[in-house]
Amino acid sequence: MKQGLVAFASSLAVDQGTLWLTTNYRTLHTCAVAGACTLAQQTDLGANTYPAHLWVANGRVYWISEMGTSRRIQVCLSGGCTAGYPKMVFQGASLDGLAISGLVVNATDAYVTSYTGGVYRIPLTDSETAGASGAVQTVGTGYGTGGLDLDATTLRWANVMSGALESCMLPGCAAVVPVMAGLASPSGVRSNAAFIYGIARGTPNGAGGYVAGTASIWRLPR
Hints:
Helix content: under 10%
Radius of gyration: 17 Å
Number of helices: 0
């Protein structure tokens, strides 16, 4: 893959051979993962929109953009931001001002986590449109919530402060279910049919960083 300068890259996702990434606090780019990975700009959302938390589902790429206190879920087709895209899936006061730390989407709902705590569910009427109910918090979570992931039955997140991997059952996500504890500042989680994978930053050093050699990538059999 081609190595090059990408201005302020903040989020990425891969879908059927295409890499998506957010850059420069305002733009989305793509490239083919095979070969040279020549970046092509898909859309410019405007200054200080801070798109991040990319997620691929339903033949589409979703992300959250933030402008001031506004929090918006937007979408393009996974093949690119063609004419008529990006579209607004959700924009409403029920997410405004939150410190967003994760977004996942399936066929019926979008789920958002806040770093300060809380999982929010947004029912969808179709793959590009939120229902009228807006975002409703389904369950409370601790400060440091992030690294959101989901599969057909379960939503999972990491908590960097408590050192835990937690989950809830879909679609309601009504209760926190512990998965694994004792992790050194976990900050990300992804899963496939066989394993749950995660990354941990390591042991805090008391000076705003982490002790060298304590970070890890781990996996948990399903």
